[in-house]
Amino acid sequence: MADDAHDPGRALVALVTGATGGIGTALCAELAAHGYTVVAADLDGGRPPGARHAVTLDLRSGESCRAAVEETTERCGRLDLLVNNAGINARGRTEHMPEDVWGGVVDVNLNGTFRMSQAAYPAMAQRGGSIVNLASTGGLVAIGGSAVYGVTKAAIVHLTKVLAVEWAAVDIRVNAVAPTIVPSPMTADVLDDAEYMAAKMATIPLGRVVAPHEVAAAVRWLASTDAAMVTGHTIAVDGGVSVL
Fold this sequence. Notes:
single chain, seven-stranded parallel beta sheet, 41% helix
């Protein structure tokens, strides 16, 4: 049984997008360890450790998002937590950014978060629930060479606030977590770049990257009853980056 269960005797159900990436895998493990029935959603339909079920999801399609939610509720009977974790990046100076690349990142990161949240609303509105969005310190502070990623994450921070206000009446809490750099397939290219990482570490007061399990723990707390009066907020798991 989940330690945060609203319905004693029945585990809460969590749907995690981008479940086969570094943070996604940690999210599935963390939530499962706290009693959630975890449904993993990703393009490849993979099922990481901790996930009970897996669904194929293309965030660029509203139909795919609705199908993922429907399959979750059909298999598990309910949906209590949506973690909008999936995302992509495109690095480069803004003046050289191709318009189609910019649009592709916006469509997955921002529009995908909107599509999944909208798809989850009918299931959650029946008994309440929680949505946790993955933002980034790139959406809180300006990072050169990351305009499109930062803009989408900044928009997710604001979308989090708006949905928290709109959906409070049906007891859906909406929050976000904003980590600094996390070892994952998305950051693999820069983790091996000594010059880039030296500059990056200089911006982090605690002087290290964020472990995936630290992001997962923050997500799990926001979804828990310990955070029952927390909505519309973004927790920065960033070693102090956003306070400089």
